[in-house]
């Protein structure tokens, strides 16, 4: 007997689709990168908008620089100790007003250094004034006492002082260097350097021996930020 067995296999077999772990990781990496890009774009847009708002407020308010005026300068001592060593002894008292001309902007003065100069040469050490806050349109009175002992000066200093005495007046410069910050509402800006230059005309004659020698009139100072 012959037995014939016929096994028929279907030509259509089910396909098994399998994704490798490496392939999955690759897709996941792309998804994470896209997420990071979206977060970066969102934060960049937010901060750019915030900076734009601050800049627009700055343009609208546009703070004006502070105003300074020298009201009085008193010279107590200004003489060269020796014609050979050219060392200067000086003591000068300055009084000035500081005004904030802005209606909606306050000013923080963080650092103030004041000194006196004569013909472009510093004749006193720097004196530090205490920091303070100046509100809208506020006026403050500032005083500084400057004193220097045996400061080296140029050889022509004594001759120049004598010549100015003959002319009847001495021109003294007051210099101020400092840092300030603007306050707009709750926003406070970064620090800005500023310089103030004032000129005092002091009556000075050979027959005037009683101290102090006072300035003839007040002067308005120039301010640079």
From TrEMBL:
Residue spans crossing the bilayer: 39-61
Record membrane topology: Single-pass membrane protein
Keywords in alphabetical order: Membrane, Transmembrane, Transmembrane helix
Boundaries of every Late embryogenesis abundant protein LEA-2 subgroup domain copy: 98-198
A GO term from the CC aspect: plasmodesma
Major place of residence: membrane
Protein localization: Membrane
InterPro entries listed in its UniProt record: LEA_2, NDR1-like
GO BP terms: defense response to other organism
A Pfam family matched in the record: LEA_2
Protein's recorded name: Protein YLS9
Originating organism: Noccaea caerulescens
Lineage: Eukaryota, Viridiplantae, Streptophyta, Embryophyta, Tracheophyta
């Amino acid at each position: 007997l012959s037995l014939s067995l016929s096994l028929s296999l279907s030509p259509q077999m089910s396909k098994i689709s399998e994704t490798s772990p490496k392939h999955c990781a690759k897709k996941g990496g792309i998804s994470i990168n896209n997420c990071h890009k979206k977060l970066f774009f969102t934060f960049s847009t937010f901060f750019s908008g915030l900076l734009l708002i601050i800049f627009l407020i700055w343009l609208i308010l546009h703070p004006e620089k502070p105003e300074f005026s020298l009201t009085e300068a008193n010279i107590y001592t200004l003489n060269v100790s020796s014609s050979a060593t050219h060392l200067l002894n000086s003591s000068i008292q300055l009084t000035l007003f500081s005004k904030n001309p802005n209606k909606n902007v306050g000013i923080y003065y963080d650092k103030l250094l004041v000194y006196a100069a004569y013909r472009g040469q510093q004749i006193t050490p720097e004196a530090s004034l205490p920091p303070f806050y100046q509100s809208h349109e506020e006026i403050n009175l500032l005083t500084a006492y400057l004193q220097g002992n045996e400061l080296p000066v140029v050889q022509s200093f004594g001759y120049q002082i004598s010549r100015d005495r003959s002319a009847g007046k001495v021109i003294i410069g007051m210099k101020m260097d400092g840092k300030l910050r603007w306050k707009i509402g709750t926003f406070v800006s970064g620090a800005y350097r500023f310089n103030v230059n004032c000129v005092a005309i002091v009556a000075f004659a050979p027959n005037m021996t009683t101290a102090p020698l006072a300035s003839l009139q007040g002067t308005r100072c120039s301010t640079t930020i």
